[in-house]
Design goal:
Largest sheet: 10 strands, mixed
CATH superfamily of the largest domain: Alkaline Phosphatase, subunit A
Shape: globular
Strand content: 15-25%
Number of strands: 29
Helix content: 10-25%
Number of helices: 14
Radius of gyration: 27 Å
CATH topology of the largest domain: Alkaline Phosphatase, subunit A
Structural class: alpha+beta
CATH architecture of the largest domain: 3-Layer(aba) Sandwich
Oligomer: single chain
Length: 765
C-alpha cells in the first residue's frame, strides 16, 4: 500500500501513531453463490430439455427450476466463447479471434486476453468471493502450458484462487494431462481402477467447497466448472459404456426428425420454424452399408453415454451444494461453448490424431475395433451425420457462423431469485451477456480498475430482466451482434441475419478457400421467424442486405476483427515469436513433470538420436521406462522389459513396431543409444544398442507428420503417462534405477507437412 493511501497516523514512535487497516471487501449477507457450467461441443438439440432423447434428467431438472434461453448464441469455437463468458467482451477484443494455436500478429488474434479485459473471477475475487476453476481451461497458448512457463494466463493468474483441470482443447478421459493450481500431476487411479475424469473433477469441486466451508461458513463462491464432455474423445466411464446399445440404429435422419418434433412441441422454436435440409456432403443414413451403419450407431452411443454420465456428475455436484443448504441461493448458469463438432469427419474416427496425420482408419479397421469405441484404446469422434443431428434444426456446425455453429443451449436457475421457473425465452442473447447477467443478479457494478489496471469497456448486456415472470414479451436487450470465424462472417440485427461462409480448406464445399472475400455470397434470413435459416431472402431485400453487410464492416472495425484472414497455412509457417532459446539438443530428467508435445524437442518427420546413461543397482529389476512420448494412441517409448533394452514406435494405435537388444541388462552402469534416420518420405531406419554391444535395426514404415498423440500425453523421463505406448506392461511402469542423463538430439532439418499440421490443430479445438 502506498503511504498516501494510509488513513492512520504515523508518528516518531507508537505513542504518537494511530494504526489503521484497509477495509476488506466482503459480500453482503445472503449474497448467492455462482456456478457457471460450460459444456463442450454440445449442440442445440442434444440435451433432453432442448428436444433430445438422450437422458439428461439433472440438466432437465435444472431447466424445470429455471429459464431456458432458446435464442442464445456463442462464437462457434471453444476458446473464443470461453473468453466471452469470462470477460464480457467480444472474442476479437480479447485477442481470441480464433484459438491461440493459430495466433497471428494482429490485435484480434494475439491469443491471450489482455489484463484490461478483466475476468469475472477477478471481479468476484475482489468483491470477496472464493473463486474456483475446475476442468477445461483452454485460455492459455500451448507454448505456455508447460511447467517452465509463465503462469500469467493460467487460472490462478486470472483471478481464480484454485484450479484443478487441464489445458488445451481436449484430453483423455481415463488418463488426462492434469494440473492442480500451478503444477502438473497424473491421476491417482487408473482406468482399471475405475478412474474417469468427470467424476474426478466433481470430487475436486466438492473438495474446494468443503475446504471453504471448513473455515468460512457464509463466504460465497464462484465455481467455473468445465468438464471435457462432450468434446472428443467420447469416452464414458465403464458403467455407462453400453447404456445406449441400439438406441441410435434408426440413424441420424429419423432421429433428427423426432428431435425437431419435440422441440416444436416444447415451444423451443418459433412455430414457423422448418427443419433445415440435410446438406449434400452428409449421406442419408439409409445409404450406409451395414458396417458403416453399425459404426455410426456405436459412435453415437458412446457420445450419448458420455453426455448422460456428465449429467449424472453435474447432479452429484448440485446435490452436494443442496446438502450443505446452499443450492436455493446459488445462481446456476449452464451453457455450451459452440455447436456440435464435425471434427470426426464424414465417417467418424477411432483416433482423431490419425485424421490430423491424414491417415484416417478405414471402415473395415474401425468395424473390427467397434467394441473398443469409447474405451481407452480409442480417441473416438462421431461422423458428420450425427453432428448435423446434434444441431437440430440448424444448418452447419462448430467453427462456422450459421446457426448450427453459434446457436446453443443456455439455462439459468436460482430458486431464491424468484425466476420464472420452467419457462422459455426467445429473446436474442449472446455469450458475452452472461457476465453482465450474473453481475446484475449479484447487484455488483462493473469495476473501472482491477489490480491497478484500468478496464476496457464491456460489450455485455444483462438479460436478467428476461428471467422474471411476465417478461416473455419484453423487447430483447441485444439487437445487434457480429460473428467471424476463419473468414466466415455474419451479423444479427433486429431479427435479421446476414451470413456468408468462407472455407478454410476444401472440406465439403466446392468453394475455393483462396477466393477473395469480396466474392463471398451473403445470404439473408429473417431469423425472428426463420431461425433455422431455410429461406434465403437476399434477392427480395437487396437494400436491407447491403445495409447489414455494411453494419458488419463497422462492427468488425470496432471489435478488432480485421484483417480478414483464413490462411491457416500461413499462420503455421509464420508462427508468433517463440521466446525460448530453442535447441536441437535437450536433456530430460527422471521423474520430472511431463513436457507437452508442442514444447518438447520436435522429432516429427525428423532424424534423431537418443542417448541415456542409467544405472541399475543390485536388487532392482531390469524393467521400467527410460524415456517416452505419448500413449497407446500414438508415440514412442524406450524401456527395459524382460531384462532387455526395448524400443516401441506406436503409429497412433494403428501399428506398433518393436525392437530389443539381445543382451540382458545387468546390474551396474549402462548406455542406451537409439538412432532414427529418416531416409525416405514417410519413414526411415532405426537402430538400438546397449553399451556399444550388438546393434539391432528395423525399418520404421511410417512416422507421423503432424503429431504423435492428440490427447495431452507428452514427453516423460523414467515413466509413461498412460495408457502404455508398448505392450507387455502397464503405465506408468516407472524405472526404479537411476537415470544419470537422458539426451535427445534432433539431426538435420525438420521436414514439415503443413496440411497435416493444419488438420492437427483444427481437430483438437
Amino acid at each position: 500500500m502506498a503511504a498516501a493511501e494510509f488513513e492512520g497516523v504515523i508518528g516518531r514512535d507508537w505513542r504518537t501513531s494511530v494504526p489503521w487497516w484497509p477495509v476488506q471487501q466482503r459480500p453482503q449477507a445472503g449474497t448467492p453463490n455462482v456456478v457457471l457450467l460450460v459444456l463442450d461441443d454440445v449442440g442445440f438439440g442434444q440435451l433432453g430439455c432442448f428436444g433430445s432423447d438422450i437422458a439428461t434428467p439433472r440438466i432437465d431438472e435444472l431447466a424445470g427450476n429455471g429459464v431456458r434461453m432458446a435464442n442464445f448464441h456463442t462464437t462457434s469455437l471453444c476458446s473464443p466463447t470461453r473468453s466471452c463468458l469470462l470477460t464480457g467482451r467480444n472474442h476479437h477484443r480479447n485477442g481470441m479471434g480464433r484459438v491461440a494455436d493459430l495466433a497471428v500478429g494482429f490485435p484480434g488474434y494475439f491469443g491471450i486476453p489482455p489484463m484490461e479485459n478483466g475476468y469475472l473471477s477477478e471481479v468476484l475475487r475482489d468483491r470477496g468471493f472464493a473463486t474456483y476453476a475446475v476442468g477445461k481451461w483452454h485460455l492459455t497458448p500451448d507454448d505456455e502450458t508447460h511447467m517452465g512457463a509463465s503462469r500469467r494466463s493460467w487460472p490462478l493468474g486470472r483471478g481464480f484462487d484454485r484450479w484443478y483441470g487441464f489445458h488445451g482443447g481436449e484430453t483423455n478421459q481415463f488418463y488426462p494431462a492434469l494440473y492442480h493450481d500451478n503444477h502438473s500431476l497424473r491421476p491417482e487411479r487408473s482406468y482399471e481402477e475405475g478412474y474417469h475424469l468427470t467424476e474426478d473433477l466433481v470430487d475436486h469441486a466438492i473438495g474446494f467447497i468443503q475446504d471453504l466451508r471448513a473455515v468460512e461458513s457464509d463466504r460465497p463462491f464462484f465455481l467455473y466448472f468445465c468438464p471435457g464432455a462432450c468434446h472428443s474423445p467420447h469416452q464414458p466411464p465403464r458403467r455407462w459404456a453400453n447404456r445406449y446399445r441400439g438406441a441410435f440404429d434408426q440413424g441420424w435422419d429419423r432421429w433428427r426428425e423426432k428431435t425437431f418434433a419435440r422441440q416444436l412441441a416444447e415451444g423451443l422454436l418459433p412455430a414457423a420454424t422448418r427443419l433445415s435440409e440435410r446438406p449434400d456432403w452428409v449421406r442419408a443414413f439409409e445409404e450406409l452399408s451395414s458396417a458403416e451403419a453399425a459404426l455410426a450407431s456405436r459412435f453415437m452411443e458412446a457420445f450419448a453415454s458420455f453426455l448422460s454420465d456428465t449429467d449424472e456428475q453435474i447432479g452429484r455436484l448440485l446435490d452436494f451444494i443442496a446438502e450443505v443448504g446452499e443450492l436455493d441461493n446459488t445462481i446456476v448458469v449452464l451453457v455450451s461453448d459452440n455447436g456440435a463438432s464435425a471434427e470426426g469427419g464424414p465417417d467418424g474416427s477411432i483416433n482423431d490424431v490419425r485424421l490430423a496425420n491424414l491417415d484416417p482408419a478405414t471402415t473395415d479397421e474401425m468395424f473390427d475395433r467397434i467394441d473398443e469405441i469409447g474405451g481407452p484404446s480409442t480417441h473416438n469422434n462421431y461422423p458428420w451425420g450425427w453432428t448435423m443431428a446434434g444441431n437440430t434444426p440448424f444448418r452447419r456446425w462448430k467453427r462456422e457462423v450459421h446457426e448450427g455453429g453459434v446457436a446453443d443451449p443456455c439455462i439459468v436457475a436460482w430458486p431464491a431469485g424468484r425466476l420464472d421457473e420452467g419457462s422459455i425465452r426467445h429473446q436474442y442473447t449472446h455469450a458475452i451477456d452472461v457476465r453482465a447477467t450474473i453481475l446484475s443478479l449479484l447487484e455488483i457494478q462493473e469495476p473501472a480498475v482491477i489490480d491497478y489496471v484500468p478496464q476496457a469497456s464491456v460489450d455485455s448486456l444483462s438479460f436478467a430482466p428476461l428471467l422474471a415472470k411476465g417478461s416473455e414479451e419484453l423487447d430483447p436487450l441485444r439487437t445487434t451482434q457480429y460473428y467471424e470465424m476463419f473468414g466466415s462472417r455474419a451479423v444479427y440485427h433486429d431479427g435479421w441475419k446476414a451470413v456468408t461462409f468462407h472455407p478454410i480448406a476444401p472440406l465439403y464445399d466446392d468453394k475455393n478457400p483462396n477466393d477473395s472475400f469480396d466474392d463471398d455470397v451473403w445470404e439473408l434470413y429473417h431469423v425472428a421467424t426463420d431461425l433455422s435459416e431455410t429461406d434465403d431472402v437476399a434477392a427480395q431485400h437487396p437494400e436491407l442486405l447491403a445495409n447489414l453487410v455494411e453494419l458488419w464492416w463497422r462492427e468488425a472495425e470496432r471489435n478488432q476483427v480485421l484483417p480478414l484472414d483464413n490462411r491457416i497455412l500461413w499462420a503455421l509457417v509464420h508462427p508468433k515469436p517463440d521466446q525460448r532459446n530453442l535447441s536441437d539438443r535437450m536433456r530430460y530428467f527422471q521423474g520430472a513433470s511431463q513436457v507437452p508435445e508442442l514444447v518438447a524437442i520436435d522429432l516429427k518427420y525428423r532424424s534423431h538420436r537418443i542417448v541415456i546413461n542409467f544405472a541399475l543397482p543390485v536388487g532392482i529389476a531390469a524393467e521400467g521406462v527410460l524415456l517416452a512420448q505419448g500413449s497407446s494412441l500414438g508415440g514412442w517409448s524406450l524401456y527395459l522389459l524382460d531384462g532387455r533394452l526395448t524400443y516401441t514406435h506406436n503409429l497412433y494405435g494403428k501399428t506398433r513396431q518393436t525392437i530389443a537388444t539381445p543382451t540382458l541388462v545387468t546390474h551396474g552402469e549402462h548406455v542406451a543409444v537409439f538412432c532414427f534416420d529418416k531416409d525416405r518420405r514417410d519413414g526411415g531406419s532405426a537402430s538400438l544398442s546397449l553399451d556399444d554391444g550388438q546393434v539391432v535395426s528395423i525399418n520404421i514404415d511410417h512416422v507421423p507428420p503432424a503429431g504423435f498423440n492428440g490427447v495431452g500425453a507428452g514427453l516423460t523421463c523414467g515413466y509413461e503417462w498412460g495408457p502404455s505406448v508398448g505392450v507387455g506392461y502397464e503405465a506408468p511402469f516407472a524405472f526404479r534405477g537411476r537415470i544419470e542423463s537422458a539426451v535427445i538430439e534432433a539431426l538435420g532439418p525438420k521436414v514439415r507437412d503443413p496440411l497435416a499440421e493444419i488438420e492437427a490443430i483444427l481437430s483438437q479445438q
